[in-house]
Amino acid sequence: MGEKIPHWLDKQAFLNPEKTALETPEGHVWTFSELQERSRQMAYDLKRMGVEEGDHIAFLSGNDIHFPVFIHAVSYIGAVVVLLNTRLTAPEISYQLQDADVSRLFFAASLTEKAYQAVEGTGVKAVECINEPSVSREEGGLKKEIDFDAPYTMMYTSGTTGNPKAVIHTYGNHWYSAAASALNLGLTPDDKWLICLPLFHVGGFSVLIKSVVYGMSVYLMDKFNQEQVHEAVMDKHVTHASVVTVMLQHLVKRAGSSGYPDTFRCMLLGGGPVPNVLLKNCSQKGIPVFQTYGMTETSSQIATLSPASAFDKAGSAGKALSLAQLWIDTPVPGEIGEIIVQGPMVSKGYYNRPARQESYIHTGDLGYQDEDGFLYVVDRVKDMIISGGENVYPAEIESVLSEIPGVKEAGVTGRPDDRWGEVPAAFLVAENETIRNADIYRYIGDRLAKYKQPADIYWVQELPRNASNKLLRRKLFSLTEGGDQ
């Protein structure tokens, strides 16, 4: 057993019982003591259903106010929760349920049809999430401590090859991530962090952990809405927000010439490169932007650039946080190489995959550090596409496209898009002349999430490959001259 601390929600309910833990635009307000009561009662309800310590249970839900209740309830039992992306199709969810050895899938009522389709033939029991815990009271049987070495969550991330993998996060990973963020950004008693990113992604989920580690209020939105975010910053005393570039572009436009009040301290910006003109607009309007680099495997941010360096180090993701280490796998300073990270927030590995022996992780991202130690990411997970903040992996799309009768070969890469940053484009080699784009979209419609579906399809004679027959995705667009779309 590893290091233990008092249960973080119990501790905040003791230290700050009347402080607001959760607030929504719809007017829901829960204190830490109310969140504790609801979470403990839901834990008893889950135990009565048969959920036990060590069980793998999945959760399919959007940013509902009951999401935090459920994940804290799981922590009182010691089960492991697999957080599912609501945008995935039923077959994609089904794969994850089986790969993670899930026994029960808990789902929000709005996702009933998808949930039952996903569990069909898997042996997984589907259970609608309990929005209102029972009123019966029980004593005992719930965990009073957090074990840093115990697994808590699994979140799927796709590799550049093969099927998606479940990143295992321990309680310690999440706690140290929250601590490192606080040491970087600072912490005050009036902090209130707005969440408009999905809670099933590590960027959104990490804020829920920050809340119970810091005793910090959270303003929870079900999805991004520029009017609601603007109002929250201007009138609801929000001090922090986590966003991706496409969101910030909308917010800067909405802010107009007025900018943001001095009470707003941090716009934490992830999800890929940031246009320099956007940073200048934010600076002119007094919007403090902290560019950041992180991944699911690092439990959220692991390097962050402060606004003070935003222009001197334009394009940089900053320096490694105080509890983290970061270096480039190259013997020559300043040269591009693979980014390697280490620290107590870094996951120890993937479920059902060979264990990693090293304490550090090869990120698969290419970058370099300048003479001052600032990180510049030049390529995200090799061929990965970042579309509206979502990671899109060409290999996964290519696998589905290659299943289609009439498609001989498939290659996928990203192209710039004014709205989403990047979108996938597919390059296909046909086996016959009868297959058309409509056939492609008909096949992938219920097999790939909308954001993974190619925005463009090009029919080509052959795909570019190297001497080892490896697909050269970066050369795909060189085929468009003379290619049919």
Automatic annotation (TrEMBL):
Pathway: Quinol/quinone metabolism; 1,4-dihydroxy-2-naphthoate biosynthesis; 1,4-dihydroxy-2-naphthoate from chorismate: step 5/7; Quinol/quinone metabolism; menaquinone biosynthesis
Domain of life: Bacteria
Reactions performed catalytically: 2-succinylbenzoate + ATP + CoA = 2-succinylbenzoyl-CoA + AMP + diphosphate
Residue ranges annotated for the AMP-binding enzyme C-terminal domain, each copy included: 396-470
Keywords for the protein's UniProt record, in alphabetical order: ATP-binding, Ligase, Menaquinone biosynthesis, Nucleotide-binding
Residue ranges of every copy of the AMP-dependent synthetase/ligase domain listed in the record: 10-351
Alphabetical list of Pfam families matching this protein: AMP-binding, AMP-binding_C
EC number: 6.2.1.26
InterPro entries per the UniProt record, alphabetical: AMP-bd_C, AMP-bd_C_sf, AMP-binding_CS, AMP-dep_synth/lig_dom, ANL_N_sf, ATP-dep_AMP-bd_enzyme, MenE
MF (Gene Ontology): o-succinylbenzoate-CoA ligase activity
EC top class, as a word: ligase
UniProt function note: Converts 2-succinylbenzoate (OSB) to 2-succinylbenzoyl-CoA (OSB-CoA).
Family membership noted in the UniProt record: Belongs to the ATP-dependent AMP-binding enzyme family. MenE subfamily.
Name this protein carries in UniProt: 2-succinylbenzoate--CoA ligase
Organism: Halobacillus kuroshimensis
Gene that produces this protein: menE
